[in-house]
Amino acid sequence: FYLDPAHTPYLFDSVGNAGTTVWVNGRIVGCWVQDDKERVQLVLIEDVSSTARALLDVEVARLDDFLGGEHISNVFTSPQMKRQPLR
Fold first, then answer.
1. CA–CA distance, 42 with 44 (Å, rounded to integer)
2. CA 66 to CA 68: how far, in whole Å?
3. Contacting residues for 72 by C-beta, under 8 A, at least 6 apart
4. 36 vs 2, 5, 6, 43, 71, CA distance in Å?
5. Which of 2, 13, 73, 80 has the fewest CB atoms within 10 Å, i.e. the most exposed one?
6. Nearest-CA neighbor of 80 among 12, 27, 6, 4?
7. Considering the entire predicted model, what is its pTM?
């Protein structure tokens, strides 16, 4: 797999704990979060092709259906999951 080293501080803490991640073709391209209504949303760090985005949207819908509105709590919430801006 591949993670741009510049993205590491946004997805991992100092001891290597990761938040949620979104992958395309072996690359970590962002994360997923749940909104106020517990719906799954993507937060992308990198641009992806329209084909990749369409496939991600299918997986988001599938995950959202699977979770059924249940809130998933995370021990570690990465800066990207908190939607902190990338520098």
1. 6
2. 5
3. 34
4. 31, 31, 29, 15, 10
5. 73
6. 12
7. 0.80
Query: Would you state the structure tokens that stand for residue 13, as one six-digit string?
Result: 């803490």
Beta bridge partners of 42: 32
28 near 21, Cβ under 8 Å? Answer: yes
Token readout for 53 is 């985005």
Tokens of 86: 């990338």
Measured in degrees and rounded to the nearest 5, phi and psi for residue 79 equal -55, -40
HEC secondary structure over the chain:
CECCHHHHHHHECCCCCECCCEEECCEEEEEEEECCCCCEEEEECCCCCHHHHHHHHHHHHHHHHHHCCCCCCCCCCCCCCCCCCCC
- Looking at residue 8, its pLDDT comes to 85
Task: Using 70 as the pLDDT threshold, list the residues of the chain that sit under it.
Answer: 75-76, 83-87
60 is written with which tokens? 């988001």
